[in-house]
Amino acid sequence: MKKNSFWNDDFHIEEFPVLQGDHDVDVLVVGAGITGITTAYLLKQAGCRVAVIDQQGVGGGETAHTTAHLTQVTDTRLSELASKVGEDAARALWEAGRLAIEQIRDLTTELGIECAWGEVPGYLFAAEDKDVAVEVPDLENDALLATKFGFEAHLLESDPFFGRPAVRFPNQAKLHPTRYLAALAKEIPGEGSHVFSKTSASGLEADEHVLRGDKGTIRYGTLVAATHVPIQGAKGTFAAALFQTKLASYSTYAIGAEIEPMPEALFWDTDSPYHYWRFDRRNDGAGLVIVGGEDHKTGQQSDTEGCYEKLEKLLRQKIRGARPTHRWSGQVVETPDGLPFIGEIAERQFLATGFSGNGITLGTFSAMMIRDAIAGHPEPWTEIFNPRRKRPAALWHYLRENKDFPVRFVKDHLAATTKLEDVKRTTGAIVNIDGKKCAVYCDEHGKRTILSATCPHMGCIVKWNGAEKTWDCPCHGSRFTSSGDLMAGPAESGLETVESAAAQAHH
Ligand SMILES: Cc1cc2nc3c(=O)[nH]c(=O)nc-3n(C[C@H](O)[C@H](O)[C@H](O)COP(=O)(O)OP(=O)(O)OC[C@H]3O[C@@H](n4cnc5c(N)ncnc54)[C@H](O)[C@@H]3O)c2cc1C
Ligand code: FES
């Protein structure tokens, strides 16, 4: 089975240059995923000069790992969301999803993007091990509330695939995310606008409205942080950093398989964490399915390989003869109240994050909101998604998610370590070298990479992720390759290499 997503396998996004020379733009967008690229595209259409930078490249983040269900149906069940944030805010979030689907459809049509766009029904169905007597009234409540908010929703005794009680939501959608992203990105350069790859925001000096890279600078009027998790910048008051601890990072897993052709549809069960299914077809008509789930807080699962095993078992149970071809995982970020953070966090600094499993739609919606705010159009959504909102109902959730930080910090610093010589080939472990906790990876030839195990974000000890061969931080979800390179923040640099006498002696 290939260890990458469908979207990176059959398609490669064109490379953009690294930042060179001095540039002046109206808006600097950091992050070239769905959020950043759509924001830049819409701003350019509105007449702004924009620059997008990404420390990796276009589609280097979670947008290439998504399963791309385009739906207004949120990860948090509608009745739960309404009781947490109120009916107006819950309805607004669903409307945001709806508007985003329409925006993506329009862009796909206007630009003639070949990205397997299609409208499909979505089904929220009672998970198999759940009691139908409890599940049906809950599903009915969700259907009634959705209808009250103006969304089409039909309660079914039995869904067309799993045969379970369900709610059917017509007119949801799906697409090939990297093809879509690449087509939008291609439209950005020119007329004073740019896309730069391999360009980090670490040289951001927010007070001076300038980004200094090794070979160039970008002066900007407004900054948009579209980095999935907020970043900090080198100097100055980049306000996004304040939001890092308000978010919880979860890992989620997906398996893609060939199957007999099926009617295209999206399915989500009512388990917690839930499983998600996308029944699809390739251009040649062959059947595909992607099943996802087994979520856990990033860096807090010892048996990450087991997550794939459970998913594969479920796939084979439900679809006899399924032939798994791809597997991949990624991160979703959650907010305390289930609403994203979208808006202006300091003068001329915008942030868009906390999309949970709805980032393709909510990232697109953020782009629309930010475009309107920068263009000075009145915004009915501003207060609802305001990153600075305070809701007492969310406080408990906030505390629950963040209790991990002090607990993990102390526990992992005191935890037992492995002996250097006991680190097995193709695995990683935490080893005490010269009194310092080190993250040691031993490759298939026996060569060891020895790094500091201390996460550069706020000092927690990273944990080995055996399935992906990465170091993951249990506190706020930063991730690093086995050679220590940064994969995902909030950390903004990689794990330091350790060069001690003791470490060298063991080589
Ligand atoms: C397995 C899985 C399934 C999912 N399924 C769905 C789904 O069905 N439907 C849905 O709507 N959503 C889904 N999601 C969520 C969705 O994919 C994400 O929320 C969305 O892609 C986030 O887009 P983004 O542009 O905000 O972030 P990203 O795509 O992660 O882009 C952020 C970019 O910022 C860059 N960056 C970060 N820090 C810096 C820095 N300091 N300097 C420069 N650049 C930086 C990164 O390199 C990255 O390219 C899923 C996610 C996963 C992992
Ligand atoms: S991500 Fe915050 S300490 Fe590692």
Task: Describe the protein.
This protein has twelve helices and 24 strands. A hairpin with a 5-residue loop joins strand 13 and strand 14. It has 507 residues and is an alpha+beta fold. The longest helix has 24 residues, at 87-110. It is 27% helix and 28% strand. The strands form four sheets. Strands 3, 4, 5, 6, 11, 12, 13, 14 and 15 form a nine-stranded mixed sheet that branches. Strands 1, 2, 7, 8, 9, 10, 16 and 17 form an eight-stranded mixed sheet that branches. It binds flavin-adenine dinucleotide (FAD) and FE2/S2 (inorganic) cluster.
Characteristics:
nine-stranded mixed sheet, D-Amino Acid Oxidase, Chain A, domain 2, alpha+beta, 27% helix, binds FE2/S2 (inorganic) cluster, single chain, 3 domains, FAD/NAD(P)-binding domain, Rieske Iron-sulfur Protein
Query: How many discrete domains?
Result: 3
User: Beta-strand level of the residues, as a percent range?
Assistant: 25-35%
Structural class: alpha+beta
Mean pLDDT: 90
Give the end-to-end Cα distance, rounded to a whole number of Å. Answer: 33 Å
Largest sheet: 9 strands, mixed
Topology overview:
Blueprint: H1 6-9, E1 21-30, H2 34-45, E2 50-53, E3 69-70, H3 78-85, H4 87-110, E4 118-125, H5 132-148, E5 154-156, E6 166-174, H6 177-186, E7 194-196, E8 204-205, E9 210-212, E10 216-225, E11 248-259, E12 265-269, E13 276-281, E14 287-297, H7 304-318, E15 323-334, E16 341-346, E17 349-353, H8 359-374, H9 382-385, H10 392-402, H11 404-414, E18 427-433, E19 436-442, E20 448-452, E21 463-465, E22 470-472, E23 479-481, E24 486-488, H12 501-506
Parallel strand pairs: 1-2, 1-10, 2-7, 4-12, 10-17
Antiparallel strand pairs: 3-6, 4-6, 5-6, 8-9, 9-10, 11-14, 11-15, 12-13, 13-14, 16-17, 18-19, 19-20, 21-22, 22-23, 23-24
The protein binds flavin-adenine dinucleotide and FE2/S2 (inorganic) cluster.
Flavin-adenine dinucleotide (FAD) binds next to α2, β11, β15 and α8.
